[in-house]
Design a protein that fits this description.
Bound molecules: 2-OXO-4-methylpentanoic acid
Largest sheet: 9 strands, antiparallel
Family: Belongs to the class-IV pyridoxal-phosphate-dependent aminotransferase family.
Cofactor: pyridoxal 5'-phosphate
Protein name: Branched-chain-amino-acid transaminase
Structural class: alpha+beta
Strand content: 15-25%
Keywords: Aminotransferase, Pyridoxal phosphate, Transferase
Helix content: 10-25%
GO molecular function: branched-chain-amino-acid transaminase activity
Number of helices: 8
Number of strands: 17
Length: 342
């Protein structure tokens, strides 16, 4: 991957890293773990539980106490954000502050200290010389992780927390590429309940739904729609993101369930709502009944990893997808001020 960030001497470590990633088969990237050469790691001190200085280290395993809060009680959060390379070689991070803020909010809920906004931004920027794919070849997925690494036996917050960021280059999330999604409604397994942590990106929201997605995949479906755990005929979200339905009979309506503390406030969700309004659609956050799926003109899902994925055919979702990725890759002017250019 070439870069036009700054002139580099051939002996500089940045130059060597870029050479190393020139070998990635960019056209064959899926959403798998392409080995990366570095990770960013920062620990908070046990005494004042404040993050001070992180370091960029070779990517590898970390040592962790078998009694750590994360291993025993699931005290952990993760984030996901993307960086794209523009045609001119510069790099665009998409709404990194939103992820940093969401991490801080989640950390409060999970009783963990969190990195400052500047520290989160810095951790993401550490990777931008290395494996951001060339223009037009998908993106780099930055995965910050905040976990309770200190040992505990009693159920209490871990005395030490660690913030780690890795950043593999990724392509399409779904193996089917950009083919339409094929969703199934999950009626038995619920993802979140009122008062729980469904609105937070905690690691403990993910393993309990593996059973639903594994079962759905074995039946040929690509994703699962979860229902409201109380009103069981109301849609909540898909496994990988948020769900939208479109109705064009009486106006240009696009609807999505309100987050209400049980759905993660997706950054792609927010962005699509704003883009849709800006392009003349009327957007409603409202309770959507299962039956409405049958009558909807279009249904689509959004998420950082899945971007905007149509269910069946999707003219509007394809339009919203191309506007969003146009902004993310610098092909469309970013009048919202969402991207950070490096
Ligand atoms: C993301 O879209 O960033 C997510 O966290 C979804 C994850 C299951 C890959």
């Amino acid at each position: 991957a070439a870069t036009s960030m700054q002139p580099m001497s051939e002996s500089s470590s940045a130059y060597r890293r870029i050479r190393q990633y020139a070998d990635v088969k960019w056209d064959e990237l899926g959403f798998g773990l392409v080995p990366t050469d570095h990770m960013y790691i920062m620990k908070c001190s046990k005494e004042d539980r404040i993050f001070t200085r992180g370091e960029l280290k070779p990517y590898g395993n970390i040592e962790i106490s078998p009694c750590s809060g994360v291993l025993n009680y699931g005290q952990g959060l993760f984030e996901g954000l993307k960086a794209y390379r523009k045609r001119d070689g510069n790099i665009l991070l998409f709404r990194p502050e939103e992820n940093a803020l969401r991490l801080q909010m989640g950390a409060k809920r999970m009783c963990m200290p969190s990195p400052s906004l500047d520290q989160s931004m810095l951790s993401s920027k550490q990777f931008l010389l290395t494996n951001v794919p060339p223009p037009g070849k998908e993106s780099m997925y930055i995965r910050p992780l905040l976990i309770g690494t200190g040992p505990v036996l009693r159920l209490e917050p871990a005395p030490e927390c660690t913030f780690i960021t890795c950043a593999p280059p990724v392509g399409n999330y779904y193996k089917e590429g950009s083919a339409p999604l094929n969703l199934v409604i999950e009626e038995v397994i619920h993802r979140a309940t009122p008062g729980g942590a469904g609105g937070v990106k905690t690691i403990s929201n993910y393993a309990p739904v593996l059973k639903a997605i594994t079962c759905a995949k074995s039946r040929g479906f690509s994703d699962v729609i979860y229902l409201d755990s109380v009103k069981r005929n109301i849609l909540r979200k898909s496994l990988h993101g948020n769900i939208f339905i479109c109705n064009f009979l009486r106006g240009n309506w696009i609807s999505t369930p309100p987050t209400q503390g049980t759905i993660l406030s997706g950054i792609t969700r927010k962005s699509i709502i704003d883009i849709a309004i800006d392009h003349g659609y009327q957007v409603q956050e409202r309770a959507i009944e299962v039956e409405e799926l049958i009558h909807a003109d279009e249904v689509f899902c959004t998420g950082t990893a899945v971007v905007v994925a149509p269910v069946g055919t999707g003219t509007i979702s394809m339009k919203l997808h191309s506007i969003l990725t146009g902004i993310q890759t610098g092909l469309i002017a970013d009048k919202m001020g969402w991207t950070v250019e490096l």
